[in-house]
Each structure stands twice: as C-alpha cells, then as structure tokens.
Specification:
Layout (H helix, E strand, L loop, with lengths): L13 H16 L6 H8 L3 H7 L3 H5 L3 H13 L7 H18 L1 H13 L1 H25 L6 H25 L6 H16 L4 E2 L11 E2 L7 H11 L4
Antiparallel strand pairs: 1-2
Helix pairs in contact: 1-2, 5-6, 5-8, 6-8, 6-9, 6-10, 7-8, 8-9, 9-10
Length: about 240
C-alpha cells in the first residue's frame, strides 16, 4: 500500500446509522409515510438490526432519552445529605439540557418533527413524565417525614420540569441559536428562589452555633422561615 493511499472512512455505529437514515427519510417523505422497512433499506441493514436497538419507530426519534434518564437517576442516587435538594434536582435537569445541546441540529429537527406529529407529541409527554417522576422520587426521599413532604416533592419536580422545558423550547424555536444554558439557568433560578433553602451565615467572629442570620426572600411565608430556621438550628 502506498503512503498516499487514504484509509477508508470508518462506518458510523449501526445505531447512529439507523437514526441518520430515519431522519433523512422523515424530513424528505414525512414521518407517517416512512416505514421501518424504508429505514433499514436506506441504512443497509435488516429489520432485526433495527429492533435490536429500537422497539418502535417512535423510539428512533428519541434515541438518547433512555441514556439520559439513566444518567439522571444515577446522579440523584449519588446525592448525600449535604446536597441542597432543590439545587440538586435543578442540576439533574441540566443533564437533559446537555443532551439536547450536544447536537443542536438534530435537536431542532426533532423538535420541528414532533410538533407536526401528534403521536410523537404524546410519546414525548410520556418521556417528560418519566423525568418528572425521577425528580419527584428523589425529593420524596429527601422530604420524608415532613407532613407535606410528598406534596412538596411533586410540586417542586413539576416546577423544575416546567421551567426547564419552557426555556429549552424557547431555544429550540430559535433554531438552536445562542447558549441554551443561559436561558435554562434563568428559568431554574425562579424555582430555586421559590422553593430552595435560604442561605444561613454567621457574622464574622461568631461561631454558627452562637449567632445565626437567616437570609430569606421577601414575601416568604412565615411558616417556611420558621421551618428553615429550625433546620439551621438542628431542631427540624
């Protein structure tokens, strides 16, 4: 072989090849008009290969959500008592953003396709519900023992998902322009300020157990301020 001979280009992994073939057909023909047989023919593989990776045609539109959900679940499972729970679930939501931001072109194509196909919108809602359940399950564990623990967990989880998705869709509607994390951070900041734990600091020269200064947002209900103060004093 001469030194000028170029090595053959490596083939993309079969899973990626199937996703690429599917979206090429979806964009050219339309989602409803494309069959699994069409996808495997374009990818140059058999039907068995398709179903080895994707249970259905809908799943090929969302090829990365199972991995992301697993990453989120592992991230939350690795938490400890030192992690402020609301901040932790906000950080978990950012894992979903990172998945979308890894490939803006694909993410925007999927968003536009999903808007056109009712079945895909329903499928997407089921995926979003699974993310919300993962967040709520973690928060239920952290708020266990509180009279309103389950309700608080469910409300915060829903708020995190709503804030994240509102900002994410705004970025997708723009065609993936700019830094999506700025918009998402701003949206999640509202959740953090509404539900997160106020910071507790001790004045300089004083030990925390001697003097405690509680910093809370204006308008916070008195019961919540008292609850956070008791927590800071170790009486929660």
């Amino acid at each position: 072989m001469s030194s000028s001979s170029a090595a053959p280009a490596a083939k993309p992994p079969m899973r990626d090849a199937l996703v690429a073939a599917a979206f090429r057909l979806f964009l050219d023909r339309g989602y409803e008009q494309t069959t699994v047989d069409d996808i495997v023919a374009l990818a140059g593989v058999g039907r068995r290969s398709f179903f080895r990776y994707f249970p259905s045609k809908e799943d090929v539109v969302f090829p990365d959500h199972e991995r992301c959900l697993a990453d989120m679940t592992a991230f939350l499972a690795a938490s400890d008592e030192e992690h402020e729970p609301v901040g932790r679930v906000c950080d978990a939501a950012r894992l979903v953003l990172r998945m979308y931001a890894e490939n803006p072109t694909f993410s925007v194509q999927r968003y536009r396709l999903t808007k056109k196909v009712p079945g895909l919108r329903a499928y997407e809602l089921s995926v979003v519900w699974r993310y919300e359940r993962a967040l709520a399950d973690y928060l239920r564990g952290r708020f266990a023992g509180r009279p309103d623990g389950t309700l608080r967990a469910d409300v915060i989880a829903a708020a995190v998902v709503a804030a994240h998705n509102n900002a994410l869709r705004s970025w997708l509607r723009s065609g993936g322009e700019g830094d999506a994390s700025v918009t998402v951070d701003r949206a999640l900041g509202y959740v953090q300020s509404a539900f997160g734990r106020p910071s507790v600091v001790a004045p300089e020269g004083q030990r925390p157990e001697d003097v405690v200064v509680l910093v809370s947002r204006r308008g916070a209900p008195l019961w919540r301020v008292v609850q956070e103060l008791e927590s800071a004093l170790g009486r929660g």
